[in-house]
Amino acid sequence: MLARVAYHFDLMANLDLYVVGKIGYVLGFAEANFEGEGESEKEDGYNGIGFGFDVGAAYYFTPRFGAFAEAGFDLYNLEKDFDVGKIEVPFSRFVTVGVSTKF
Q1: Under a CB-based contact definition with an 8 Å cutoff, are residues 94 and 68 in contact?
Q2: Distance CA 86, CA 77 (A)
Q3: Does residue 83 have a pLDDT over 80?
Q4: I want to staple 72 with a disulfide (CB 3.0 to 4.6 A). Which of 33, 54, 65, 90 is the partner?
């Protein structure tokens, strides 16, 4: 779970540009099944501190309805050693698009 803090740039009436910083506690669950080993192993969980950074834009077609796009990354730096190998989850990159509304 990462807490988000955003700063919105007020450049145009219908366009909302923003940057987001995130930090928080990350909890992961994994099942290791490595090719060629013929074994699998389940693990309850592993955890650590994570953070991230996003940039985004929303364009409002009406005062209450618009579309948005957001791109960013989250850095997890999670590792878990299994008997049959090791799983590493260093980061996640993403792009999100959707609709946006103001209440």
Answers
A1: no
A2: 13
A3: no
A4: 54
